[in-house]
Design goal:
By secondary structure, the chain is mostly helical. The chain has a domain of 28 residues. It is built from 1 helix and no strands.
Length: 72
């Protein structure tokens, strides 16, 4: 194969200087599409209610698992 018959690949020349850094405001693809959280959501639920729901779910799952094992 001669130099004239060489298969050309997608080769890009190496730049002589490093690329400039992308500005922080343009670095995210989600820039400008997020909405701020409203103040009303900060006090929508007291902190103990979600913890209580999680605790009830954990106790239910553990109780179900223990009941299945004990009833086997």
């Amino acid at each position: 194969m001669t130099l004239d018959q060489r298969i050309h690949t997608h080769e890009f020349p190496v730049p002589d200087h490093p690329p400039i850094e992308t500005p922080e405001c343009e670095s995210s693809t989600g820039h400008g599409i997020s909405t701020p959280e409203s103040v009303e959501l900060h006090t929508a639920w007291p902190g103990w209610i979600p913890l209580l729901v999680i605790a009830v779910m954990v106790v239910s799952c553990v109780g179900f698992a223990v009941g299945r094992i004990a009833g086997w």
